[in-house]
Specification:
By secondary structure, the chain is an alpha/beta fold. Helix content is 35%, strand content 16%. The protein has eight helices and ten strands. The strands form two sheets. The chain has an eight-stranded mixed sheet with strand order 3-2-1-4-5-6-7-8, with helices on both faces. The protein has a two-stranded antiparallel sheet with strand order 9-10.
């Protein structure tokens, strides 16, 4: 599957390398041309055990690419990941300007259906803001792609174990799971079917894919939809 990741920091770069490692074709986009040029030559902006070799191997094998071209990233990926920083404001709240800027950028280049995944660290309610930003941009362009599915990917990673966690090789202290959050849970089965292919290489060691209401995506959820059972449960 073709995937695009906006942001090449700790979350974005590791996610891109791990997804490329299991066979996906990944484009990592960043607005910093210096960082992108360094990544193209094998100079990483972060250190994580095993990451340098992972990046080098997948770049050489043609599954991992780096770009500053947002339009190319949007056109490339069936799934678009937002993985940019959310620094603290003066009052301690998360600064969402970069997340929302990416959302607007994606919407400004969308011409057909895209699944949008948030992997940035954000507070409850961000998915609604992202959706509103995207919808406003699409309305301004008079474009109406078929649906705006949103996927939330909560994380509980620590430095030094993030690659293992991303690959779903988790320990009980660092549980991992995939969550799909949508305003209308009736849409969840179709979205989950689309995402199953992306997660399939890791399904042997990952937990269930869950569909839960958007505002509870960052809490410990109870299963509402088990992709293996193909049915909702209360």
């Amino acid at each position: 599957m073709n995937l695009s990741i906006f942001g090449t920091g700790y979350v974005g770069l590791v996610s891109g390398a791990c997804l490329a490692e299991v066979g996906h074709h990944v484009v990592c986009m960043d607005v910093d041309p210096v960082k992108i040029e360094k990544l193209k030559t094998g100079i990483l902006p972060i250190w994580e055990p095993g990451l340098e070799a992972l990046v080098e191997r997948n770049v050489m094998e043609g599954r991992l690419h780096f770009t500053t071209d947002a339009a190319h990233a949007v056109q490339h990926g069936q799934v678009q990941f937002i993985a940019v920083g959310t620094p603290s404001d003066e009052d301690g709240s998360a600064d969402l300007q970069y997340v929302l800027a990416v959302a607007q950028s994606i919407a400004s280049h969308m011409t057909d259906y895209r699944v949008i995944v948030n992997k940035s660290t954000v507070p409850v309610g961000t998915a609604d803001k992202v959706a509103a930003t995207i919808q406003a941009e699409l309305d301004a362009r008079f474009v109406t792609p078929d649906g705006l599915p949103r996927r939330c990917a909560p994380r509980n990673d620590g430095e030094g174990i993030v690659i293992a966690s991303e690959a779903r090789q988790s320990t009980p202290a660092y549980p991992t799971f995939s969550v799909v959050s949508n305003p209308d849970l009736a849409d969840a089965p179709a979205l989950l079917e689309k995402l199953q292919f992306m997660d399939k290489p890791m399904e042997a060691v990952q937990g269930a894919i869950l569909a839960i209401p958007v505002k509870t995506a960052f809490t410990t959820p109870s299963p509402l939809f088990d992709l293996n059972q193909r049915e909702f449960s209360q």
